[in-house]
Specification:
228 residues, alpha+beta, Pnp Oxidase, Chain A, 5 helices, globular, disordered N terminus
């Protein structure tokens, strides 16, 4: 796998998406309908891949993601220690939504700024900095068809490392290596969306002409006229 070319293609693809979006005058609501193209050398079963839209104070980034895992937010966790004699055995609640993400290095200056600032101010948890909180929407899609998405709110980076991956032993026999960003995020809330169900339950309104419209002759079809 030629990851050098893959990194270049990923960066150019992300830049192209934003160039087209800016030229057309689209906002975020128009951008989310698109997905960032994955490097051509990467293979995804049924062509289903992941795209993440990061929304920061200073701008947004649409990022092709190679690995995405939800780590918390659906199940429950204990709010008190089981060793606490005063603990209420029935006390429980949901864990803060969190997820991990892996992407090929490059193409995300805002996300890198958030990681750098988090590392810089890690010991000062109460300190506010520009990229401390942000929203993330994750899309699971094949081409332009979104099958599942998750809207994460008020997220922070809880861990960030750069790693090198290979195709196991094949990395030394010509398929190459990938240098990747590995992130962990923790958020204050998230909303799952089901695009397929929304299509099923959506009822379109009939396009009918009201009697008030008929009174206005300028709306009549050609060939119809008013008798004098």
């Amino acid at each position: 796998m030629n990851y050098k070319n893959a990194i270049t293609m990923t960066t150019l693809s992300v830049i192209a998406v934003f160039a087209i979006t800016s030229f057309a005058g689209f906002g975020i609501t128009n951008t989310v309908a698109q997905t960032a193209p994955q490097p051509a050398k990467l293979v995804f079963v049924e062509n289903i891949s992941t795209t993440a839209l990061f929304e920061f104070r200073d701008g947004s980034e649409l990022v092709p993601v190679q690995q995405f895992t939800q780590t918390a937010g659906f199940g429950a966790k204990s709010l008190v220690s089981v060793d606490d004699p005063k603990a209420d055995s029935g006390a429980s609640g949901r864990a803060n939504p969190s997820f991990t993400m892996e992407k090929i290095v490059g193409g995300t200056p805002f996300l890198y700024a958030a990681a750098d600032q988090t590392q810089q101010y890690y010991t000062s948890s109460g300190f506010e900095y520009p990229y401390k909180f942000f929203d993330v929407t994750v899309f699971l899609a094949a081409g332009g068809d979104v099958f599942r998405s998750f809207e994460y709110r008020d997220c922070q980076i809880s861990n960030y490392v750069v790693a090198t991956r290979s195709d196991n032993e094949e990395g030394y026999t010509g398929k190459g290596f990938a240098v990747v960003d590995q992130y962990s995020f923790e958020c204050k809330g998230y909303t799952p969306t089901n695009a397929a169900m929304e299509k099923i339950t959506h009822v379109e309104k009939a396009k009918t002409t009201s009697s008030s419209d008929l009174k206005s002759t300028d709306k009549w079809e050609p060939g119809f006229f008013k008798q004098q």
